[in-house]
Amino acid sequence: MHSRDRLSTRQHPFSRVFDITIASAGLILCSPVYALAAARSYFRSEPCLRREIALDALHRPVHLLYLRNTDYANCGLLLSVMKGNLSLFGIDRLPSNATLETRRSAPEVSVDSAPAPGLLSLASAHRDIGLIPPNETLSLEQQFDSLRGFRYVSSFCRSVFTQLFFSGEKLRRPDSFYLFGLRINNNSMQEALDWLFSPYSGECETGVFVNVNSINQSHKDKALKSAINRADRVFADGSGVRLGARKQGVHLKGNINGTDLLPRLCERAQESGLKIFLLGSKPGVAAQAARNLCQRYPFIHIAGVQHGYIENDDEGRHEKQLLEKINRSHADILLLGLGSPRQEQWLERNRKHLSCRKAIAVGGLFDYYSGNIPRAPLFLREMGFEWLWRLAQEPRQKWQRYVYGNPLYLFRLFRMKRSQ
């Protein structure tokens, strides 16, 4: 790596002043906790502080201080920040069995001069919101980038937000759970891919994504609720479902959405030779998405495409012709983008007539990969606010879904929590 490509790793003086100011304020607020822990430790004749050593993403030892004899042991970490062993926001502290993602070469950096490990980090925020699995961390290059200059403060604030609303370190992680009567599989992205590429079971298996909108729809549409619950896999999509799961005491392994799933699916499909059929969206959209995917993944096999504007006759002749077209293509995986609730009900009605291994409802996915709609910036996704971007892109089509639907969902969460 050339010298001009080296990353600046010295902590900005402003960042250290910011650390000391915030940590000092935190110590003042936590002083009753410290006093109670000190009193208990005195009567038990043991030290007030417990010392631990962990590793950060650079595999350096991190000396941590925790309070004894209190439920708020993490308040002791503020002392680690004051001592300089930790920064408020910095390099990731490795979770158990963590793996370091290396999309590009690791930056050339002296370990001794690298930024301090953080009480919070960009990687911990991504784990909280489900952008990466619980046992993974981000590349060092991405972590260093979030620490540069005044980005430190904005990155710290976003991490505090995700920690408050989406962190689930002490929550249970069941294989599945129910939210407003919908059965949801608690899968990681890797588990979702493993299911998609699992051997043919003798009949087509179906998968759907559940988000705030589908939960709201299922309240008044019993046929949709039935179709979702009869799917073989139901994936949690979005920060709203994550928030709802947390209210149930459940921590989601990942945020499984079609936009993040499709690139991984294509990479694996071109390695395994499995064929994909794209069905849905307006005329020309699925075809353009297929062309873009073929450019990006030159060895992928798109078995066929079909727009979703197919009007059925009384005898269901057009639907039968469509099913024959899909089966003749010998597709292994069908991606169905008809919009909810039509796509879920279509899968439930036709799964027995499909010869493909898996069929999964993907909503408006083809609009993204055709280039019609850009993806939300990363900083919005880091806070679970991708819906704001969608609302800004399509205000007329999406205002009822988000402006009315999101507060309605939060109200239902509030009532559910009170009833518990």
From TrEMBL:
Q: Could you tell me the keywords of this UniProt record?
A: Glycosyltransferase, Transferase
Q: Does the keyword Chloroplast apply?
A: no
* Any GO molecular function: N-acetylglucosaminyldiphosphoundecaprenol N-acetyl-beta-D-mannosaminyltransferase activity
This protein's record includes keyword Plastid:
no
| InterPro entries listed in its UniProt record | WecG_TagA_CpsF
The enzyme's E.C. designation: 2.4.1.187
Positions of transmembrane segments: none
Q: What class of enzyme is it?
A: transferase
Top-rank lineage group of the source organism:
Bacteria
Could you tell me which PANTHER family the record lists for this protein? PTHR34136, UDP-N-ACETYL-D-MANNOSAMINURONIC ACID TRANSFERASE (PTHR34136:SF1)
User: What is the protein name given in its UniProt record?
Assistant: N-acetylglucosaminyldiphosphoundecaprenol N-acetyl-beta-D-mannosaminyltransferase
Q: Which organism is it from?
A: Pseudoteredinibacter isoporae
